[in-house]
C-alpha cells in the first residue's frame, strides 16, 4: 500500500504541463539553445517551471476502510495545464502545456511532451516543465491545472488581470466527473480538479531566464498550487464504551412503556423487547426475573402495585439509530478564481505572499459579509430545503455513512455496506466574525432512522436473532424524574440533562388529563406543562390521529415520525485556541484545499424530529472540539472535528 500511495504522489507531480496555446517565442537551434543574435545583452530567454502540487502521502485515503483510496485517485488526475504570463496587468503569453496524468487500471500513467522531470518528497509532487523561450522581462505568472472554458476565456492573450477578480459560479467548473467501477458497482465521482496558484500571482524577474536550455532546467522557478475546492468527509468512529448497562452512547435509546392505562401489556406481535441485561425485574426492591413468554415476574406473578398509585410494570423497548446519511448544507454559489488573502487566525495579521503557516490561513470570498438575515442569501447560497433530500437515491446527493465503531454491536441492523461513504467537494465559504450564523455558515446535516430492537427467546444483546422493526412514531419528553438508577427508563443528553421516549398511545392519554393521577410516576414532573406548550405551538395536532400527523417540535415535547431524526454540525475552521476564543474570527467556514474530517465519536442525545432550520442566529455559545493537525504547507491541510451528538 505504501508503494502504491508513493506512486500516486509521483503521478500527481507528473500531472503538470506544457503545450503552447498562443504567444510569440524566440527561435531555438537544433540543440535547444538560443541563437547568439537572439540573446539580449548576453542574457538568456530560456525559462523552466517547477510546480508543487499538494497531496499528503499519509492521508491519501478518503475513508478508513481497509485501505480503500476512493476519491484520492481522481484528485490527482490532470488533462490540461495553462501557463499565463502577465506583463503590465495584461496577458502576454498563454501556453497550454502537454502533461497528462490518467488512470491506468489500478495505477496511473503520466505522459506529455512538455514534461522534463517529476519527483516527490513523500508530501508533495514536484513537476518540472522543459525549458521554453520567452522575451526576457518582468512578469506575473498564473498557473491553471484542468482549466475550464470560463478561466480559459479570461486568460487569453490580451485579457486584463482584473478578470480574475470576477467571481465565478461554483455549480460548474470546479471539477468534472469520471465513471469508476468498484466493489459497489459503477458510480460517478469528482475528478480533474481545477487548481491554481496557492496565494497570488508569482512574480518573475529577468533573473529567472537563462541563456541555455540546460541552465534553465537546472534552475526552475517554483510555484505552489492548490485545488479551488475544499474536501469534506464524515466517519462514525469511536469506542463503544457505555455509561450504563441499559444505554450505550452510540445511538441506542430506551423507550419507557406505561401500562397504567391498559388492562394488559400490549407487547405487540412477533419478538420481545427485553434484552438479556434487563431480564431482572425492574421494580424497585423486587428480586425476581421476568419470563419472556408470560411477561410475569417470578417473585410476584402479577403486575406490581407501585406506591398505591396504580398498576405499574416498568418495562422498556430499545431503539437503535441506523442508516445514517449526511448532506452538505449552506453551500456558496460564488467563489474567486484565486484565494483572496485576508487576516490569519487571531484577526490581527494579514497573510502575505510567501507565508507558510497554512494552519492559520483563512480567505475572503465574494459573500464574506452582508448576507446573514437578508433575502439576498437565497441567491448566493444553496440550502437543503426538505428532509427527503437526505434520502439516498435518484436525484439526491446525500451520502451514506457506514459505522466504524470498534466493537460495534449493530452492524447487522444497517442497510449500508462498507464502502458506501464518499467524500464531498465544496467551494470556499468564509465570513466576518459577526456573521458566523446558521444561515450563512456551511454545515453538515445528518439523518438517522431509529428502529425497534426485538429479542427472541434465546437472544442476547450481543447476539440478537430477530431483525429490527420499524417505528411509526414516538414522543420525546424533556423532564420527569431525573433520579433513575443507570438510566434504565430514561435517556441522557451529552450535557447530562435527561429525556424520556414515550409511546404515542400513552401521550394521547396524558394529553386529555387534567391531573397526573394516571400518568406514570417517572413523568409527572413537567409533563402537563410540556403538553400545554405543545398544543399552543401546534394547535391542529390530533393526538388521537398521530399516525397521520407530521413531525412537530416544541420546547419540552416533540413528536417524531417513522423513527427519523436530524443533527446539524457547523463546519469549524480554526480551533477555539487558534481563534483565541469562542465565536471569534475564523472559527467557522471552509477554505479551499483544506480537508475537513468530521468524526462522530458518540451518539448520546436524540436528534431533532424536523430538519434544523438555518436561522440568522449565532452558532457558538459553547466550546467545540475542532483541533486542526499541523501539517507542512505543501500538504492538503487536515482539520479534524470530533462530534458528540
From TrEMBL:
This is Minor fimbrium subunit Mfa1 C-terminal domain-containing protein. Gene3D superfamilies: 2.60.40.2580, 2.60.40.3690. Residues 559-617 form the Minor fimbrium subunit Mfa1 C-terminal domain. Transmembrane segments: none annotated. Keywords: Signal. Residues 1-22 form the signal peptide. The keyword Signal applies. InterPro entries: Mfa1_C (IPR029140).
